[in-house]
Amino acid sequence: MLACNSANKLSFNRFISNGDLVIIYERHDNMKPVMVSESSVLQNRFGVFKHSDWIGKPFGSKVFSNKGGFVYLLAPTPELWTLVLSHRTQILYIADISFVIMYLEIVPGCLVMESGTGSGSLTTSLARAVAPAGHVYTFDFHEERAASAREDFERIGLSSLINVNVRDIQDEGFPDEFASLADAVFLDLPQPWLAIPSAAKMLKQDGTLCSFSPCIEQVQRSCETLQTSFTDIRTFEVLLRTYEIREERMEGFSGEGNVANGSLPCKRRQRSDGSNVLSSSSSSVSTVMARPNGEARGHTGYLTFARLKCLS
């Protein structure tokens, strides 16, 4: 996992140690975070896994249970953390997060301000983007939620890059001490237009702002407020369609026969899932199949971007 030491240098833990957080990967839709403890075990449908067998192995290792089953031990990257974290609130997913980091022009060394923290999905990726010398200041009005996020950032090794604060940004605005220091501001609030004037004061000249809203009425109200101090106002909706790639056995054809296109007569058989396949009694071959994932996500929200107007 990426971490930042006191000398502002990036470090990558390539090998698993006692006390590390690992992502247990069973399949693409079944992963969970586990804290490694030398005296602990993991039990699942594949058997019993001893944590002590994991220590010293590199991240990405395939480890086996007492029954011969296996899982993979993955590093808790921001991408994987987004998929396994506890949902204290609705979160941003990878497609939106990638878009936000690109359009806010976040690079190493940036100072980024965020409200609200929520489950910390976006915050983890912001921290990695600004490392090693940058910093993320994130605010949430809910004290227990902020405390939980702070614990999560500690677990995944990003606490040196993130400050979690309890503050109602809609009512109070951002702290004056950050005026004109932020390279970018991100808002995920029910009424973002209330925080936009304060966000404008936090930004450096030519700084960028993004507001995430699930409803178009929120976008319209925000854009009206943005016109006072911002330019280049744009709104996007990111829709992602994923495909499932798998290898399947297909029945081959052999023998002789005068059939159109050179194919032999085949029998139709029904699979247990109700789908039909054509087959002959001859040998089978494997092939790679691709099909849209049945759980593709649709609308998550609207991303509105704007750039602070330069003083003439």
Topology (SSEs and partners):
Elements: E1 2-4, E2 10-12, E3 21-27, E4 30-35, E5 41-44, E6 47-50, E7 61-64, E8 70-74, H1 78-84, H2 94-103, E9 111-115, H3 121-130, E10 135-140, H4 143-155, E11 162-166, H5 169-172, E12 182-187, H6 196-202, E13 203-213, H7 216-226, E14 230-236, E15 243-251, E16 267-270, E17 276-279, E18 284-292, E19 302-308
Parallel strand pairs: 9-10, 9-12, 10-11, 12-13
Antiparallel strand pairs: 1-2, 3-4, 3-8, 5-6, 7-8, 13-19, 14-19, 15-18, 16-17
Helix pairs in contact: 1-3
Folded structure, characterized:
The two termini are 45 Å apart. The chain has 312 residues and is an alpha+beta fold. Helix 6 (196-202) links the parallel strand 12 (182-187) and strand 13. It has a 7-stranded mixed beta sheet, sandwiched between helices. It has a 4-stranded antiparallel beta sheet with strand order 4-3-8-7, with helices on one face. The protein is 20% helix and 35% strand. It folds into 2 domains: 2-76, Roll (Vcp-like ATPase, Chain A, domain 2), CATH 3.10.330; 80-239 and 298-308, Vaccinia Virus protein VP39 (Rossmann fold), CATH 3.40.50.150. The chain has helices at residues 78-84, 94-103, 121-130, 143-155, 169-172, 196-202, 216-226, and strands at residues 2-4, 10-12, 21-27, 30-35, 41-44, 47-50, 61-64, 70-74, 111-115, 135-140, 162-166, 182-187, 203-213, 230-236, 243-251, 267-270, 276-279, 284-292, 302-308. Helix 1 runs antiparallel to helix 3. The chain is built from 7 helices and 19 strands.
